[in-house]
User: Fold this.
Amino acid sequence: MPLDPRVTQFINDNPQGVLTTYRRNGKAQMSIVTVRVHRDAVGVSITEDRAKFKNLLRNPECSILISSADWWSGFIVVDGTAELIWSGNTDPVELQHARREVYSATTRRRTADWAEYDRLVDADKRVAVIIQPQHMYGTFFNEKWPGARIAPGGK
Assistant:
């Protein structure tokens, strides 16, 4: 589902979110994350040693709530499937590029020393998570598209 430019702008203006993944027993596990639009999807950076990584490896279905800074003037929930780009499934050069792209997107900056950055994120075992939207909803749509109960193209 391509992101509407209004959704992209909302995410760019509000890079804080809560990622929901699912434990082995089916219960939700939630984590505060920094989010950014990444190639018509939502990009997040996590590490291999966290529960959310293990959950997504087992079950890539997830949701992410992206909220306005004040938590009250609008939010979007993106339901989707996570693509994990990590050391266990990605060529080292491709992984390096993905980590750099997601870092640049989520932090809104570039580092002055990419070699040092690469060394640190490799030691940290950073994972680039790309969430492909399948369904979206939230108060943002009520405000931007009055009368709409869900995102255009959603179910």
